[in-house]
């Protein structure tokens, strides 16, 4: 048998081996995806499950090298990843609500989509619930805007005055916060050109838990000053506005 005949006879065997390698890499990739999903849902607790990430990357690339279907799947994954990047950083992203400080508008365990598009065209407004980066530039928090740039605001437990007019903010529930801060001096501030005042709907909650475990205790002036300072949000730290889209992610 000449060389051409041998090559022709060997071709189906090569194709079969190539197809088998593709199936093996596909199976490894699918298994890595399943492991990662189970780990992300808390079903698998072992940190070894994170190995599914590099294994998944290697297997999908190897599958794409030996299989046309693998190349199609890889192209779809890359496309979806690019879309996710655009949506997450420029359009909207979900945030898990960690407590009930904004209840009933936002409840603990809710995943809320905070959208960015509105603020590309219009500035934040009073009553908007916003997601923002805290003063440490690391953690994220949320609150309702009650003060706008340029406004003069007088704050004391149980009452907020904006430009000389008492703010009738139906959302703020001061609760035991009034008793805790009864000895505090009112604080007057003037918001800068790009500053907003945002507070939780339920005061005396997470923001002051470190200062007091009971409404019968009092808040020091230093804690009060920090509370006010943390409530002043620079426009550049606002990550987005709460949208109607939310779901339970407990």
Summarize the structure.
The chain is of the alpha+beta class and 250 residues long.
Give the name of the CATH superfamily of the largest domain. Umud Fragment, subunit A
| Structural category | alpha+beta
Instruction: Give me the side-by-side strand order of the main sheet.
Output: 1-2-11-3-4-9-10
Poorly predicted runs = 206-215
Largest sheet: 7 strands, antiparallel
Just give the CATH class of the largest domain: Mainly Beta
**CATH fold node name of the largest domain:** Umud Fragment, subunit A
How many structural domains can be distinguished in the coordinates?
2
Shape summary: elongated
What percent strand? Answer: 15-25%
Helix content: 25-40%
Radius of gyration: 28 Å
Number of strands: 11
Order of helices and strands: HHHEEHEEEEEHEEHEE
